[in-house]
Amino acid sequence: MRIGFYAPLKPPDHPAPSGDRRVARLFMAALRGLGHDVTLLSDLRSYNRDGDPAREAATADAAAAEVEMLAAAWKNDPVEKPDLLFTYHVYHKAADYLGPALKQRFALPYVIAEASDSPRRCDGTWATGYAQAKRALIAADRLLAITRHDVPGLVGCVGAARVQYFAPFIDPVPFASAAAQRTQHRVDLAARFRLPMDRPWLLAVGMMRDGDKLASFRRLAETLPLLRDNNWHCSLVGDGPAREAVANAFAALGDCVTLTGQMEPDQLAALYAASDLYVWPAVNEAYGMALLEAQAAGLPVLSVRTRGVPDIVEHGVTGWLTPDDTPAAMANAIGHLLADQDQRLRMATAAPLRVQRELSMDAAQARLTTLFAELGLPA
Known about the structure:
Blueprint: E1 2-6, H1 19-33, E2 37-40, H2 53-76, E3 84-90, H3 99-106, E4 110-115, H4 127-139, E5 142-145, H5 151-158, E6 163-165, H6 173-179, H7 182-193, E7 201-205, H8 212-223, E8 233-237, H9 243-250, E9 257-261, H10 265-274, E10 277-279, H11 289-296, E11 301-304, H12 309-312, E12 319-322, H13 327-339, H14 341-358, H15 361-374
Parallel strand pairs: 1-2, 1-3, 3-4, 4-5, 5-6, 7-8, 7-10, 8-9, 10-11, 11-12
Helix pairs in contact: 1-15, 6-10, 7-10, 8-9, 8-13
């Protein structure tokens, strides 16, 4: 089957790394792994961070031109026309102007993955973007909610028949491979970053940018001093325009914290595997790809029961979720897990098994195959 793929928030070939780009690439890989011919429909980016009306209008004009260009290309060579339109991540700040128009014009089936509806944006700054995003949701044949948190809103928008929960996923193979070499990775990383071998290693990974990511780092910086002793070391992985602000937030903790900078995927997988507990406050986090990666490497997760986090971290089994992100609640949970090595080991064993069973590329491909059968499309 020929699939036209589109990611209006950030194209999968965008040069700047992010979780959104990562998930778009994972969906493309999953579809290609099933034997489908996946092509990128367009690199038109509709992201409108501030809801600027002029930017939204310019995006609409550019999209209209793009639709005409695609229509002409498909008329000239009908083989190029896809059998399915597949859009990743649609919401009021990144509406899909292509999918609804192409579906209407060519009667093509249309699926949106990571769809969400926020009616409170129907007026005000993002009114135009919200209206277009909602048009896309209504036009789609199936909406895939990546978190259960988003399901009720989508059902309210289009009805239950066209909405399904579709768990986030990763390719767990690189992380399982890293876990198999945990001891050697720990020795190598200790030498590279001067990490103490005689203390438990905490780990947090995130883009260092203003907004929710910086808020999570700052919340962690407020949490760690509340631990009863300093018999731990925390590595912070990431980079970005807020790196200095992150460094300042943790400055008082001295050599208990190491900022590693951005790491290559294989090295990050090694650090997940070598660490003892992943810690992340998940401020306004949809779900968090790093939480998945950590578990795939056999690293228990300490996070917060918010939005989509409980979908991917099974409380008491693969990690621990505090009821809120207050520093006291998180510090108490971190202290408990640091003191209970047996529980961490049980979680370390359970986490990669659950990822493989429910949150892996294989699991996602099985769900996609079922979805296509339900839509009457080739598997």
